[in-house]
Design brief:
With 194 residues, the protein is an alpha+beta fold. It has one domain. It has three helices and ten strands. The strands form two sheets. A six-stranded mixed β-sheet has the order 7-2-1-10-9-8. Strand 3 and strand 4 form a beta hairpin. It is globular.
C-alpha cells in the first residue's frame, strides 16, 4: 500500500511538473546579453514594407545612459555629391552604423557599414506582435513628410517587423526603438536597443 502511495505521488509530481510548463512561455531565440548593450538594425523596404535583412551586435554596457533616449551620437556630413550619416554608441564612441549616399544627376547609390548581413529568412516570426513603444526616436530625411505621414509610414515599418523573434526577444525587458529613414532601399532602418 505504501509503495502504491509513493508511486502515485511520483506520478502526480511528474504530471504536475509537465503540466506547469506553460505553452505561452516565450523562449529567447537571439543571444541577448544582460551585461551588454544589445543592438539590432532591421532594414524594411519603403514600398513593400518587407523585411530586407538585419544586423545584430553587442557592445559594452553603459551604466549611466538615459532610458529616455537612444545612446547614439549622430553626425551628418552633407558634402557636394555625397552625404554621410554616422551613428556612434555614445558611451564608447564605437561606430554602430554608417550610411553613405552618393548623388549624381542621373542616379544615387548607397553603402551601409555594417552591411545588413543577416538575410530576411534568418528571422523567424512568432505568434505575438509587439506593440511599438510610446517613445521612439526618428533620424534621417523626414522633411519630405508631415508628422501624420511620418507616423503612418513608421507604423507600417514597425508592423512589418513586430512579429519577428528578435523584436520579441528585445521586448522581454525594457528596450528602445529608433527609425532612420534613408532615401534609398532599404528605406527604413529600425534600431532596437536593450
Amino acid at each position: 500500500m505504501r509503495a502504491l502511495s509513493v508511486l502515485s505521488l511520483a506520478f502526480l509530481l511528474c504530471y504536475c511538473e509537465k503540466s506547469t510548463t506553460s505553452v505561452e512561455k516565450y523562449t529567447i531565440s537571439w543571444p541577448l546579453r544582460a551585461d551588454s548593450m544589445n543592438f539590432a538594425i532591421l532594414g524594411v523596404n519603403g514600398e513593400t514594407y518587407a523585411l530586407e535583412g538585419g544586423y545584430f551586435a553587442h557592445y559594452e554596457k553603459c551604466a549611466n545612459c538615459s532610458a529616455d533616449s537612444l545612446p547614439f551620437d549622430v553626425t551628418t556630413i552633407l558634402a557636394h555629391g555625397f552625404d554621410v550619416i554616422t551613428f556612434r554608441y555614445s558611451y564608447t564612441m564605437d561606430t554602430l552604423f554608417r550610411a553613405f549616399l552618393f548623388l549624381s544627376s542621373s542616379q544615387s547609390n548607397s553603402v551601409f557599414s555594417p552591411e545588413l548581413n543577416l538575410l530576411s529568412d534568418q528571422f523567424k516570426t512568432v505568434n505575438r506582435k509587439v506593440e511599438m513603444p510610446q517613445q521612439v526616436e526618428y533620424y534621417g530625411h523626414y522633411y519630405l513628410f508631415d508628422q501624420a505621414t511620418l507616423e503612418q509610414k513608421s507604423d507600417s515599418a514597425w508592423n512589418a517587423i513586430s512579429d519577428l523573434d528578435i523584436v520579441n526577444d528585445f521586448s522581454q525587458q525594457n528596450f528602445q526603438v529608433g527609425f532612420f529613414r534613408f532615401n534609398k532601399q532599404p528605406e527604413w532602418l529600425v534600431f532596437l536597443v536593450r
